[in-house]
């Protein structure tokens, strides 16, 4: 699939050597305008070099990622500026540890850290002033 090829192109080591059939892959619902996909390497205790999963994760080798494909609202010329602004903000938040890690940006989307216990905000939550204040306080701290 296109999503798995993107992961193999942008991620390293085990992502390039794992057979396509061994990946865990699923579409994640909840994106307002983007298409979200969970992709993970197979769960193994050690690889052929006796390297543990913890060793790989500490070496910045993600085991699980979220692939975000920009959707319909990003398909016209007016949205290019919006995509660039969002990408810059996402990158800055990632670099400062205030958001998911960024693993790659490609034409039409990006590869992000998968946050297992996280969830997308519901549409009505986007307009909740109290929730916006809580988020702003956490980002500013």
TrEMBL record:
Q: What is the lineage of its organism?
A: Eukaryota, Metazoa, Ecdysozoa, Arthropoda, Hexapoda
Gene Ontology annotations for the cellular component aspect, listed alphabetically: cytoplasm
Tell me the InterPro entries matching this sequence.
Kinase-like_dom_sf (IPR011009)
The record's family statement is:
Belongs to the choline/ethanolamine kinase family.
Gene Ontology MF: a single term: ethanolamine kinase activity
Full protein name: Choline kinase
- Note whether Transferase occurs among the keywords: no
Query: What are the protein's UniProt keywords?
Result: Lipid biosynthesis, Lipid metabolism, Phospholipid biosynthesis, Phospholipid metabolism
- Highest taxon listed in the record's lineage: Eukaryota
Name a single GO biological process.
phosphatidylethanolamine biosynthetic process
* One Pfam short name: Choline_kinase
Instruction: Give the organism the record lists.
Output: Cuerna arida
Please give the SUPFAM superfamilies that the UniProt record associates with this protein: Protein kinase-like (PK-like)
């Amino acid at each position: 699939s296109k999503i798995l090829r993107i992961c193999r192109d942008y991620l390293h080591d085990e992502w390039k050597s794992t057979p396509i059939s061994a990946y865990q892959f699923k579409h994640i619902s909840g994106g307002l305008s983007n298409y979200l996909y969970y992709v993970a390497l197979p769960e193994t205790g050690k690889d052929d070099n006796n390297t543990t999963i913890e060793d790989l994760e500490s070496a910045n080798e993600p085991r699980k990622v979220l692939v975000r494909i920009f959707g319909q609202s990003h398909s016209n010329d007016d949205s290019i500026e919006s995509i660039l602004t969002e990408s810059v903000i996402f990158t800055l938040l990632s670099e400062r540890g205030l958001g998911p890690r960024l693993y790659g940006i490609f034409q039409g989307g990006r590869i992000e850290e998968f946050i297992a216990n996280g969830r997308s905000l519901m549409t009505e939550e986007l307009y909740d002033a109290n929730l916006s204040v809580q988020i702003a306080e956490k980002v500013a701290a």
